Structures are given as C-alpha cells and as structure tokens.
Amino acid sequence: MNKPGRLTNRALRGKEEWFKRIFRDQIAEAAGILEVVLSGIVLVALLFSIVPLVELMPGLLTDADSIEVHMFLERALDIVIGIEFIKMLAKHSPGSVLEVLLYAIARHMIVGHEDAVQNLVSVGAIALIFIIRKYFFVPSFGHKLPGGEPAPDLKEEGQ
C-alpha cells in the first residue's frame, strides 16, 4: 500500500519528464541567445572589414590593375556572404541557406581562377539550387506555395 505523501513511480516519471522538458527548453533558449551573440560578433567584424574595402576604392580609380580589382572583388563578396550568413542565422529558413550557398558559389566563380571543369561544376551547382528552388519550393524564395496558399514561414510572421 502507498503511504500518504509518498510519490508513486508514475508520479516520479511525470516529474522527471517535466524537468527534462524544462531543461530542454532552457538549453534551446541559451542556444538561441548564443546564436544572436554570434550574429552580433559577425556583424561587428563585417563593419570593420568595410574600412579596408573603402581604402581600396581610390586605387581602383587611379591605377586599377587586375590585382587590385581582384582584391576588391574578393573583399566585397566576402562581406556580402557574411551579411547573408547573418540573415541565415536570423531567418532560420532553408531559403536563406540556399542564398548563402548561391553567393559562395558565385564568389568562387568570380574571383577564383579555376579551370573549365571547376567552372562547369559551379554552374551545375547553381543550376541545382535553382531546380531545388523551383520544384522543391523553399518558402523564403516566394510568398506562395505552388498550390497558391501562403508560405508557412510567412504565416508565422503574420500571426
């Protein structure tokens, strides 16, 4: 027989599950805060990296050789990829991941001095991303699903 005030196994399991759920929620909240802090650190670093980019601009006007143009494009595209990375952390959508990948592949093609096979692979990767975007629908690329209903991530923002 159970004595009054004594917890049964079922009650103990219920309390244990409740503590696990609270602990998981707190870990998820801490991870979200760390993600925001990381985004802030990356943003500050990107703001600092704009200064050398601006310093390169007068050289482009006076004696723009291929090395200076290459350095300028590298830094500018790195900053753009960094900005897209911050947006990816903020949005949490597959579409933002694809956008980062598109910019990274485009940067590789533009500033990389690769052979024809590497360029073909890069073009194929970009084509694959667009195929994924069109046929497997990523909500952040459009406001409506192929059937015409609003995208799930937009429903959440509107509520």
Task: Describe this protein's structure.
This protein is mainly α and 159 residues long. The protein has one domain (9-158). 79% of the residues lie in helices and 0% in strands. It has five helices and no strands. Helix 1 packs antiparallel against helix 2 (66-91).
State the separation between the terminal residues, measured CA to CA.
51 Å
Helices and strands, in order, run as: HHHHH
Structural class: mainly alpha
Roughly how many Å is the radius of gyration?
24 Å
> What is the percentage of strand-forming residues?
under 5%
Question: Count of DSSP E strands?
Answer: 0
- Poorly predicted regions are none
- Work out the oligomeric state of the chains in this entry: single chain
Average pLDDT figure: 80
Q: Give the fraction of residues assigned to helices.
A: over 70%
**Count of discrete domains:** 1
Number of helices: 5
Overall geometric form: elongated
The largest sheet is: none
What layout of secondary structure does this protein have?
Blueprint: H1 9-63, H2 66-91, H3 94-111, H4 116-135, H5 152-158
Helix pairs in contact: 1-2, 2-3, 3-4
